[in-house]
Design brief:
Helix content is about 65%, strand content about 5%. The chain is mainly alpha-helical.
Length: about 500
């Protein structure tokens, strides 16, 4: 008899659950879903992490880093699209893993997604704060240092943590509270607000490319890969490429592992499948379209940025707006800072919109207390309690942790989630070959296999500390699962009633 730890949730049961009263409103079309994807992707990655990756890891070879990360995401995106069309319910990769790999793997991926969306949101709030302060600086306004930064940061040259002299990042906390209030109000209001923000930031991104191209100095691209073309480590032992003062890998692949964060967002489209009007058609369109658009824009912006300013002079906190300041375009700095604020705000909104929906799916299955994480507001039809809890945790992390730690921790969790989704597509094709698949990942089995391989390669290009942090998070998740989730699992109770155990 099979172990309940690996019991799979039938697709028929997933679809049956959507007919209940405790479900979300179907109001999102393909344009809104694509907008949500673009809203989640273009923001902190392009306006903030390009600076860190170019300055610390890859130099001008950041252009190639974006292409490598984009390729890894394309494989994963096609797998996400297949699952989203098969099971158009809230929960994203957690739901897909439950239907294919079983309950234990579903819990692991769900708990991993909680880490991903929480830390992404905190990272985005941190980036928003720096651009907000940069925007205020244009008018000569400064926030007191004690309230402008996280209390500590990591110095890659020295290989150690240093004090910043600050207490906490107040703007990051404030923007998180405001977004939480918007999200509790409703999905329609959230989507409309996001669409407006997306339009503003796309206009600014095109401005950066169009104007910045005239200030590109090809000499800034030489050497094109000052840190080399690799940067791969295995649990802290770099076996290909240079290292920094702390022993962390440097190079194009190391840069790709860092800016992988920039692509996080297309998977959030799948978390809103239950709110799509025609999910089997519109969700795959939203996932693939948003990823392709953003990949092209990322490559163009990184080429312009590293061509305008030598990589070692790029500001890691507000790289794009500061680059225009350095070439003597203060008016552009104003517009870019304003557009960056709009762009980063939309990313924060989509990330914090997605997190409670994963918690909702886990609560429906009994893995988390349904009274808190499964509660849907009677009027607004939003998972309001988990939204407020998410906002509280994100505000604390965004106010206290530095950008470098947040970005790297986010990346390793997301890469693990993508690899599991690709593996789940492989399993599902063999376990349920006759299941209805409105969208099928092409070139099977090569697409999921390459997705797993590229995600694993980028995971090994991250510093070893991230593996330990991920391990600690997953260990805490196992304690919760065996202490609560396994005993309250709805599927386990159903199996008992039917005599399956």
């Amino acid at each position: 008899m099979s172990s309940p730890l690996f019991a799979r949730k039938p697709l028929a049961l997933l679809l049956e659950e959507m007919k209940g009263e405790n479900r979300l409103r179907r109001i999102l079309g393909p344009i809104q879903l694509t907008s949500l994807g673009v809203g989640a992707i273009i923001g902190t990655g392009i306006f903030v992490l390009t600076g860190q990756a170019a300055h610390d890891k890859a130099g001008p070879a950041l252009v190639v880093s974006f292409a490598v990360s984009g390729l890894a995401c394309i494989f994963a995106a096609l797998c996400y699209a297949e699952f989203a069309s098969m099971a158009p319910v809230a929960g994203s990769a957690y739901t897909y893993a439950y239907a294919t790999l079983g309950e234990l793997f579903a819990w692991i991926i769900g708990w991993d997604l909680v880490l991903e969306y929480t830390v992404v949101s905190a990272t985005v709030a941190h980036g928003w704060s720096h651009y907000f302060q940069d925007f205020l600086g244009i008018f000569g306004i400064e926030i007191p240092r004690a309230l402008a930064l996280a209390p500590f940061d990591y110095d890659p040259a020295a290989g150690r943590f240093v004090s910043t002299g600050a207490t906490f990042d107040l703007p990051a906390v404030i923007v998180t509270i405001v977004i939480t209030a918007i999200l509790v109000k409703g999905i329609r209001e959230s989507a409309t607000f996001n669409t407006t923000m997306v339009a503003v930031k796309l206009a600014v991104v095109l401005l950066v490319i169009g104007v910045g191209a005239f200030y590109v100095d090809p000499a800034n691209w030489r050497p094109f890969a000052p840190y080399g073309w690799t940067g791969v480590s295995f649990f802290g032992k770099t076996f290909s490429g240079m290292t920094d003062g702390g022993g962390h890998p440097l190079g194009m692949l190391a840069g790709a592992a860092i800016i992988f964060f920039a692509y996080i967002g297309f998977d959030s489209v799948s978390t809103h499948a239950e709110e799509a009007r025609d999910p089997q058609r519109d969700v795959p369109v939203g996932i693939v379209a948003s990823l392709l658009v953003c990949t092209v824009l990322y490559i163009a912006v990184s080429a312009v940025l590293t061509g305008m300013v030598p990589h070692d002079r790029i500001d890691i906190d507000a790289p794009v707006s500061d680059a225009f300041r350095q070439v003597g375009l203060p008016w552009a700095q104003f517009l870019i800072s304003l557009g960056a604020l709009a762009g980063i705000t939309s990313v924060l909104l989509v990330m914090m919109l997605s997190q409670p929906r994963v918690l909702l799916a886990m609560a429906r299955d009994g893995m988390l207390p349904p009274g808190v994480f499964g509660a849907v507001h009677e009027r607004y039809r939003t998972p309001w309690k988990s939204t407020i809890l998410t906002g509280a945790v994100v505000s604390v992390l965004g106010g206290l942790l530095p950008l470098r730690i947040l970005a790297e921790l986010t990346n390793i969790g997301t890469l693990l989630a993508f690899a599991i989704v690709c593996a789940a597509v492989l399993v599902m094709r063999y376990v349920e070959p006759g299941a209805h698949r409105p969208f099928r990942a092409p070139l099977f089995p090569w697409v999921p296999i390459l997705g797993i391989a590229t995600c694993a390669l980028l995971m090994f290009s991250l510093p070893v500390e991230n593996w330990w942090r991920l391990g600690a998070w997953l260990l805490a998740g196992m304690v919760i699962y065996f202490g609560y989730g396994r005993r309250h699992s709805v599927l386990a109770e159903r199996r008992k009633r039917e005599g399956g155990v």
